[in-house]
Structures are given as structure tokens and as C-alpha cells.
Amino acid sequence: MDMQNENERLMVFEHARKVAEATYVKNPLDAENLTRWAGALLELSQFQTEPKQMILEAILKLGEALVIDPKKHDALWLIGNAHLSFGFLSSDQTEASDNFEKASQFFQLAVEEQPESELYRKSLTLASKAPELHTGGTAGPSSNSAKTMKQKKTSEFKYDVFGWVILASYVVAWISFANSQTPVSRQ
Fold it and tell me: What GO CC terms are in its UniProt record?
């Protein structure tokens, strides 16, 4: 993406965050708003040099949403994404593993709530592969060229996974934002 598109995305999600924050003041029990807010925070975290704090804030908002509506599948999926992202950002293997496990649990709950969602099922599959991706994989042929090729494939797969997670988060946040901005018809 070029710089202008990045700046536009930043402005869109910052606006969504501010709208959600203002809505929260009026109605702190709106699970949909909390989910939108968390989605915006996750998107904004991509623009941060230290994204972990913003991801943690998103996890807290999603936790609030799930207290209000424990079966809210998009919040379950989004909190799974937040934990997955946090795990990949963690250099501590134990912390990363804990977050990958939480991600798997939330993705499983999302799948249970909406089993027809291909996105939720793929996210669950990805979460099961996350620990290996995080460590870069341990098994492989002994030759250097084969090892290099495997590392390259693993690295490419990581970027593919991150790309899909980011895209999926963007789509969910955009849909949530669009739904919140629909005009009310007056009849």
C-alpha cells in the first residue's frame, strides 16, 4: 500500500476509535460498540512501534463485550486474533504459548457459535500452527539449502498469515463501522 492509503486507514480507524469511545460514554453496555472499539484498536496497533499496549487495551474491551454477550461470535473471533497477534509479538516463549492457547480457545468458541464461518475455522487452524511458526519450526533436513528453503517457506507463510489476519480484522472492523453508521429511516 502506498503512504496515502496508509494515512487514510489510520484516519478511518482513529475516527472509529473516537466514535466508539464517545458511544461508550453514553452506553457502556453496548457489546457491538465495544467490539468495534477493539477492532479499531487492533487496526491502530499496526501503526504503533510498540503495539502490545494497544492490543492489550483491545483485549480488555473485548472482554467487556463478552461479559455483556458471551456468545458474540465476532468478539470471540476478534479476541482470538488479538491473542494471536500478541503471541507473535512476544519474545518470551511461555507468554507466546499462553496467548496462542487463548487464541485457540476463543477461535473454538467462535466456531461453535457460527460453525458455517470459514474464516473462524481457518483462524482456529492457524492458531494450532502458531507455536511452530513463532519458533520458526524445529524439524527439517540437515542440508543447509533445504533448511534455508524451509525457513524461507516458513517466513513466507508467517507473512501470509499476518496478511490474512490483518485483512480479516480490517473487514470485520469495516463492516462493524459501516453498520454503526447506517442512517436511521424515519417513517
Answer: mitochondrial outer membrane translocase complex; plant-type vacuole; plastid; TIM23 mitochondrial import inner membrane translocase complex
Q: At what angle do helices 31-45 and 52-68 cross, to 10 degrees?
A: 170
**124 touches 108 (CB < 8 A):** yes
The pTM of the full predicted model, rounded to 2 decimals, is 0.72
Which residues, including other chains, have CB under 8 Å from residue 118's CB and lie 6 or more apart? none
| Residue pair 25/5 in contact by the 8 Å Cβ criterion | no
Q: Give 167's contacts (C-beta < 8 A, 6+ positions apart).
A: none
Q: How many CA atoms lie within 13 A of 50 on its CB side?
A: 1
Domain holding 52, by residue range, is 3-135+143-180
Q: Is residue 107, in this structure, part of any structural domain at all?
A: yes
What residue has cell string 468458541? 109
The residue type of 168 is: A
pLDDT in tens, 104-147: 999 999 999 999 999 999 999 999 999 988 887 544 443 444 44
Position 156 scores a pLDDT of: 62
3-state secondary structure of 91: coil
